[in-house]
């Protein structure tokens, strides 16, 4: 069932995870996307999910399938969103790409960079678009922050980055959630929350890879060996440095601080903004201590950015626009997003290796 030029991209969703409901809503909100199908290992579960997301969007329910294979075999499905446990990403992302479906893959993208390389290779050889689910990268605030960091008269040269991404998990989460199960999401807090912190550091550094990664001492693991809390420092040859901390054991935080030779930037709600329709950050440029160090010459300025759509809908919209271009024959898949994902995965792998080596420094 071929789509006519300019028609919305028809999505299928593999799995009924909580995050899938958020992205299903985003698909409904995006003007160039349509939710066509959802698959689960249980047909009743798929039907219940389809009914729930249709009711929430006041839309017709998508087709419900009792397997992931049926979603991939549906000729009307042009793209898939894959929110499955990380251990299943390699198999299902490859299967989707081999069926000619564009792949929007939830983060963390893979358990290791070699798995991700296989996914990216198959996407490239089949001419389909790849993107991971780092929603915050698509918010208008992120573009506005980039403008500030790129202004040499305001920010200057990048020197230091700090990032945290944490939340206090309850006992049920720590016992039963897939993110603490070694056979499903063995990266634990490093993959789930550390992906944000590492991704933010790379973004702030304009995706220049550091020279070294060193895990911070005393990472915390559960009895199955899955990371519940960890951090690391990164260093570049030109003297830049960065740290991140991710944890299932600390109060909620999603902070990013970026410091340059002339200014600084702070965000306290990076990955999930406090509000859907508006997000802000603070910037300071050219500040110094006042006489006798009794105060500062200027205080941080709040920069507020309106959001025409929630950030997850902006992600879907951008992904669907790229997929439409490929489908309608006027562009090739955009490699940028695979490159961003691969660099993030490289640093996740380096931190994991450093932890396994007793927090020794790992060269990149």
UniProtKB/TrEMBL annotation:
Classification via InterPro entries: Gfo/Idh/MocA-like_OxRdtase_N, GFO_IDH_MocA-like_dom, NAD(P)-bd_dom_sf
Domain GFO/IDH/MocA-like oxidoreductase: 155-265
SUPFAM superfamilies referenced in this protein's UniProt entry, alphabetically: Glyceraldehyde-3-phosphate dehydrogenase-like, C-terminal domain (SSF55347), NAD(P)-binding Rossmann-fold domains (SSF51735)
Domain Gfo/Idh/MocA-like oxidoreductase N-terminal residue range list: 9-131
Pfam families: GFO_IDH_MocA, GFO_IDH_MocA_C3
MF GO annotations: nucleotide binding
Family recorded in the similarity comment: Belongs to the Gfo/Idh/MocA family.
Protein name (database record): Oxidoreductase
Species of provenance: Colocasia esculenta
């Amino acid at each position: 069932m071929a789509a006519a030029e300019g028609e919305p991209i028809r999505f299928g969703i593999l799995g009924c995870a909580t995050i899938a409901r958020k992205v299903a809503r985003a698909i409904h909100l995006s003007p160039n996307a349509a939710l066509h199908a959802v698959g689960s290992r249980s047909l009743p579960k798929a039907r219940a999910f389809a009914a729930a997301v249709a009711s929430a969007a006041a839309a017709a329910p998508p087709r419900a399938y009792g397997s992931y294979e049926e979603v991939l075999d549906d000729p009307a499905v042009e793209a898939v969103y894959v929110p499955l446990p990380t251990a299943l990403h390699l198999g299902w992302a490859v299967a989707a790409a081999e069926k000619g479906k564009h792949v929007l893959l939830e983060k963390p993208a893979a358990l290791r960079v070699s798995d991700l390389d296989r996914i990216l290779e198959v996407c490239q050889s089949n001419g389909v678009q790849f993107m991971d689910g780092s929603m915050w990268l698509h918010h208008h605030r992120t573009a506005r922050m980039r403008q500030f960091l790129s202004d040499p008269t305001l920010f200057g040269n990048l020197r230091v980055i700090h990032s945290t991404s944490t939340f206090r998990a309850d006992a049920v989460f720590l016992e039963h959630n897939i993110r603490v199960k070694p056979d499903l999401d063995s990266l634990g807090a490093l993959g789930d929350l550390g992906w944000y912190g590492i991704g933010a550091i790379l973004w702030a550094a304009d995706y220049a890879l550091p020279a070294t990664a060193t895990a911070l001492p005393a990472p915390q693991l559960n009895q199955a060996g899955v990371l519940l809390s960890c951090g690391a420092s990164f260093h570049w040859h030109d003297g830049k440095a960065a740290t991140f901390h991710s944890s299932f054991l600390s109060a909620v935080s999603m902070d990013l601080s970026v410091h340059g030779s002339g200014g600084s930037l702070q965000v306290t709600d990076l990955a999930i903004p406090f509000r859907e329709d508006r997000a802000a950050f603070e910037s300071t440029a050219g500040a110094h201590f006042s006489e006798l160090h009794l105060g500062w010459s200027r205080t941080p300025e709040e920069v507020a950015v309106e959001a025409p759509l929630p950030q997850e809908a902006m992600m879907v919209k951008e992904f669907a626009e790229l997929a439409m271009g490929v489908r309608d024959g006027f562009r090739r898949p955009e490699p940028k997003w695979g490159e961003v994902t691969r660099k993030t995965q490289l640093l996740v792998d380096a931190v994991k290796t450093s932890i396994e080596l007793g927090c020794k420094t790992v060269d990149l």
